[in-house]
Design brief:
The protein has 533 residues and is of the alpha+beta class. The chain is built from 17 helices and 18 strands. Strands 12, 13, 14, 15, 16, 17 and 18 form a 7-stranded antiparallel sheet that branches. Strands 2-1-3-4 form a 4-stranded parallel sheet. Strand 16 and strand 17 form a beta hairpin. Helix 1 runs parallel beside helix 17, helix 8 packs across helix 11 and helix 9 runs parallel beside helix 11.
């Protein structure tokens, strides 16, 4: 009568315990449902088996058998509240118009890499916002127009990067750059080609015309950006008479193989002026660095599956044609500019997992969780070595790597920090205000822009909700860069920090979506309403 029957599908013992404490009764899944729970791993991948069993037992304590008895009595009743891993894994017969479910349909418009890439391309037509200010530029390689746009972007980035390398010259003294591998290599990526090295001696200087070519290309590109080509039929900068195959080969020798670059003082001044003008038009000019590294991702995968880094155009295109990953159709790959100029902690790359909840799509209503956590890599950050252990912060990736001997000992052994620890670190850097004045506002704006860009694609249900996990990198200037949004963020306690925070966000989510209906003034913990349309 009170409509307090629930079903939990997946590894969520805390949700089960909290609902029982509220007087709710569980309609337990039949055997097929239990099999689905087992099908979606992992419960607690960081806990020993005995600790995982203890965790489950603590949440399922039923000394008098009362919960089992009540569950038996409601076995034929439809649940009023469903918490599940994935909406697709839920029996359609359980989904009724009036019950509350913790997922919406068709959220792949912003919770897959391919969907987010496409949705944010539409953002300027929906909002007065530029995705290039918070989302590293991204292309779907299975779409011909976008593949061509990526090729042009790759070439232009190489030209800009050459100018940046040229600025590192001291007068007319040649600069020798560090040698960098072409791509990430490892036991699990045998399909990746090994680094190719130039046959020319590493120290042999390149002709000055290489800088002239880069200057000419960037001048033409600046003219396009300034709309100077409106009244004349100006070709694309990549359609010029420059031999791009040769240019990219020579640029790669300079940036990645230690070749020396010769330029004059006049060219150096031209580089400074041109890059200064381009910075006003390209929000990602600083972030993109000077090594032209790109990251290739399966469009619908998660947990770091299939992701690789590369510096070779032909490698990107070859992988887009030939590589496949489990459950990914051939061609559904995205390529994204790697954030080269990023903030590291103790010389180690990290990212931020930030939660938020959508309780309605019409009107769009968004709640931001004020606690989050950082995930560290296992090996020190380096753009000269592109192994996954240095560049992919996912817990599901890093759990396979031992901490590197040359890792700074101040990096936490469990590779997790709370946002409070991060704020203390920023204060030590003299950036005490960066969290509240730059990072948090930037993350909120990025999340809202992503949601608004995909709003017309989502199939919403009144009364339902969804908890999401957004992943951000932090630039050298503390600006957050959105990488992806996950529709089923893990609640597994991989550390002491996540054990506490994951329990808290589940508790506060139930307060927000259940308790607040009966008591609008009740505590909603760390949730903050940031947008109501």
């Amino acid at each position: 009568q009170e409509k307090k029957i629930f079903t939990v599908q997946g590894p969520y013992p805390i949700i089960r315990r909290l609902l029982r404490a509220r007087g709710w009764v569980e309609r337990k899944l039949p055997s097929t449902g239990r099999k689905l729970e087992q099908h979606y791993p992992l419960h607690y991948p960081w806990l020993p088996a005995e600790e995982e069993e203890k965790e489950e037992e603590q949440c399922d304590e039923d000394p008098n058998g009362i919960h089992d008895l009540m569950s038996h009595l409601v076995r034929d009743q439809l649940p009023n509240f469903i918490w599940t891993n994935f909406l697709e894994a839920t029996d359609r017969q359980l989904l009724q118009q009036n019950n509350v479910v913790n997922h919406y349909a068709r959220v792949d418009a912003f919770t897959t890499k391919e969907g987010l890439c496409l949705s944010l391309q539409k953002l300027p037509w929906i909002e007065q916002a530029d995705p290039n200010t918070f989302f590293p530029r991204c292309y779907r390689l299975g779409v011909m127009d976008e593949r061509e746009a990526f090729i042009e972007d790759f070439c232009l980035t190489a030209a800009r990067s050459l100018l940046k390398l040229a600025l590192e010259e001291a007068g007319d003294t040649p600069l020798r750059t560090e040698q960098v591998p072409n791509s990430v290599t490892g036991a699990s990526e045998s399909h990746i080609s090994q680094p190719k090295h130039s046959t020319a001696p590493p120290g042999s200087p390149l002709y000055p015309e290489l800088v002239e070519d880069a200057l000419e290309v960037c001048k033409q590109h600046l003219g396009v950006l300034q709309h100077q080509d409106i009244d004349r039929n100006t070709p694309s900068p990549c359609r010029t008479c420059i031999d791009w195959d040769r240019f990219l080969q020579e640029y790669h020798r300079v940036a990645h193989e230690g070749a020396e670059l010769v330029l004059t003082r006049q060219q150096r001044k031209q580089c400074q002026n041109l890059l200064w003008c381009l910075a006003e038009k390209l929000p990602q000019l600083d972030m993109e660095g000077k090594l032209n590294i790109w990251i290739l991702k399966p469009g619908a995968e998660s947990q770091g599956r299939g992701i690789i880094c590369t510096t070779r155009l032909e490698e990107v295109l070859q992988l887009a044609r030939s590589c496949t990953a489990p459950s990914v159709r051939s061609g559904r790959w995205v390529v994204q500019k790697y954030v080269e100029q990023l903030l590291t902690i103790f010389g180690t790359k990290f990212d931020i997992r930030q939660w938020f909840v959508v309780t309605d799509w019409k009107p769009l209503t968004v709640w931001f969780y004020q606690d989050c956590y950082l995930r560290f890599c296992s090996w020190p950050f380096s753009l000269c070595h592109l192994e996954r252990a240095r560049h992919l912060c996912n817990v599901s990736v890093q759990k396979w790597y031992e901490t590197s001997p040359d890792q700074d000992p101040r990096v936490p052994p469990d590779k997790i920090w709370s946002n409070k620890q991060f704020q203390e670190y920023l204060a030590q850097l003299g950036q005490a205000d960066a969290w509240h004045q730059v990072l948090v506002p930037g993350m909120k704006a990025a999340i809202l822009n992503a949601l608004r860009s995909a709003q017309d694609q989502v199939r919403f249900r009144k009364g339902s909700f969804e908890l999401y996990g957004a992943d951000f990198l932090v630039g050298e200037d503390c600006q957050p860069w959105l990488l992806e949004i996950n529709s089923c963020p893990t609640m597994s306690p991989s550390s002491a920090v996540t054990r506490r925070l994951c329990a808290n966000v589940q508790r506060d989510t139930l307060r927000l979506v259940l308790d607040r209906k009966d008591n609008p003034t009740c505590s909603i913990g760390a949730f903050e309403l940031i947008y109501k349309e």
